[in-house]
Amino acid sequence: MTFKGWQKTSLIEYPGKVATVLFAGGCSLRCPFCYNAALVLAPEAIPDLAEEVVLSYLAENRRLYQAVVVSGGEPTLAPGLPGFLERVGSLGLLRGLATNGSRPDVLRAVLERALVEYVAMDVKAPLNWEAYRAAAGLEEGARQVLDRVEESVALLLRTTARVEFRCTAVPGLHSAQDLLALARQLAGARRLALQSFRPGPTLAPALSSAGTYPEEILRAVAEQARGWIPCVEVRA
Length: 236
Ligand code: SF4
Description:
Blueprint: E1 2-3, E2 5-10, E3 19-23, H1 37-41, E4 49-50, H2 51-60, E5 67-71, H3 81-89, E6 94-99, H4 104-112, E7 118-122, H5 129-136, H6 143-158, E8 162-169, H7 176-185, E9 191-196, H8 215-225, E10 231-235
Parallel strand pairs: 3-5, 5-6, 6-7, 7-8, 8-9, 9-10
Antiparallel strand pairs: 1-4, 2-3
Helix pairs in contact: 4-6, 7-8
């Protein structure tokens, strides 16, 4: 597997652990609020980082880390993902996967083989076509993507691996009702993070100046959502 970016140390990507974070290129979605346009639209323009380089660094610096998180882009698009996770596991490190849930077949295989201890799934909007189409930047003919996302949610609601669902709330794209509807659909999950959109360069330039999402709305949604999900965190 090759990567397009590497954050050597993160204290937030794997809860409670010191992690190194790797970014795979390419993505199956086109979220208008995406901050990673280069990684999504033109990964071939970014130099490759080979997994051997990462693994030999980790072997040499094993004592500095507790976990490795593979993020993107969308890492489940890479055929080498299971093999890489297996090699990370043989170093005795925990493994985390950040995914948009568009490849439930890969997610299922990785979970069944116990190749990850932690999954963070970005859910873009309530699980209905109009909302998902807008938030994930999908074409009209791509309804099967939502089916796959729903399949991934169902898998993650059943797994014994540690799971966090995440939703980035964007002004003009998500109402409080949308966020509540999503939280209801995720009932049974152990953890949901409501993240406020931050203005900056985005895939759809019109959203670059959308402003942050009102924190008080996120807090009110979180309060209600705790009726269905025990741990709902606001990241403003
Ligand atoms: S925000 Fe959307 S387009 Fe960007 S990497 Fe994540 S899933 Fe892909």
